[in-house]
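Our preliminary data section would be incomplete without showing what the modeling component actually yields. Below, a chain of 124 amino acids is followed by its predicted structure, encoded as tokens that our downstream tools consume directly.
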Amino acid sequence: MDPSKINDVRDAARELIEQQMAERLAVIEKLVRSQDDEEELQARLAQVQAERTRDWAEAERLGWTAKELKRLGLRRPARSAASGRTARSTAKEPSPSRAETAAPAVEEAPTPFPSRPMGVENFG
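Predicted structure:
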């Protein structure tokens, strides 16, 4: 094979690999941002739920009944996650089986490269 052709194919392969790596890194950046956003929103939701629960209790302390509040279009806040129950659902969720909760014997490290060889024939 002509050495210049080998270099051309090698350069094309390198360009493709660099493009794929850039795409993979970009999606990881997006994933980190969306995970951070989700965690912030969950924390904010917990704050709002706690505030609403306090407000509901204060309304009852001031003489409002649950029935009156419901007639006004207000819903009783869900019970805290610590109790494991909500105002509407008191059914206990089934506990996971022992096999589902057991830790794997050996944890594999993520593979930083594609599973198939990066030969020129894979870039078609």
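The longest helix spans residues 3-61. The CA atoms of residues 54 and 77 lie 9 Å apart. Preliminary results of this kind motivate Aim 1 of the renewal.
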